[in-house]
Fold this protein.
Amino acid sequence: MSDGCTVLLTFDFDAEALWEGAYGVTTPSTLSRGAYGANLGMPRILALLARYGIAGTFFVPGITAERYPDLVRRAHGAGHEVAHHGYLHVSPTTQTEGDERTALEKGLEILEGLTGTRPVGYRSPSWDLSAHSLRLLAEHGFVYDSSLMAWDAPYLVPVDGGSPQLVEIPISWELDDAPYFLFAFRPTYRVGLADPDRVFAIWRAEFEAAHADGGTVCYTMHPQIIGRHHRLQVLERLIRHIRQYPDARFARAADVARGYRAHPGRSGA
């Protein structure tokens, strides 16, 4: 019998940094796709979450926070977690240890300056970590990382082969909106443009299985992708479906990580 389910709605608020950092594309039309996430995606997501009384987690690159400080403050003021997502949305695997440390500290300074709260969670801009990443996160006092995929519920990860020091909030490409919806001709061709009903069916099935296990499910979305009207309907349908289960709850990643650290082995906070 199910003990309920913990659901995390997480959003990578990349804006233009997705295209500049991850893809190295700076043409006006491409960057405007990122701006859409700030201009319309973020306000729509914040309004939707407010309507259902849900607190989510927003992973924000430092440069995006510099460009859109009011949106970051608005998310934090609404009770959402604001977490670290690099500075320039560049993969740590392409950085030296010194560069990675600098980006980590710069992002911390910016986000804490805007919200008054030091981020305790980190998600790699590339969903990949360097050989130094976990140690750097531990050194800077992070409670959790959300860049790995070894489990479908929180687990502990060792730092440099030592005792487990970080909680991992695992991610999954199947539960990310980008593989389904992100279209691009260049620099890498991505088909995207999936049928929203198909995506909803996959996300619903994952929740139902997690609920049956009394587990945790973590969804990742991007304001510039999920923020389109027809895609935001997928998220609202998912929320309404989950709400039909009285023992399912929505939670911020930080709360789940702290709860897991206090009681290892439990999937929720």
Observations:
- Strands lie at 5-12, 57-60, 81-84, 121-122, 144-145, 155-158, 164-168, 216-221, 248-250.
- DSSP finds eleven helices and nine strands in the chain.
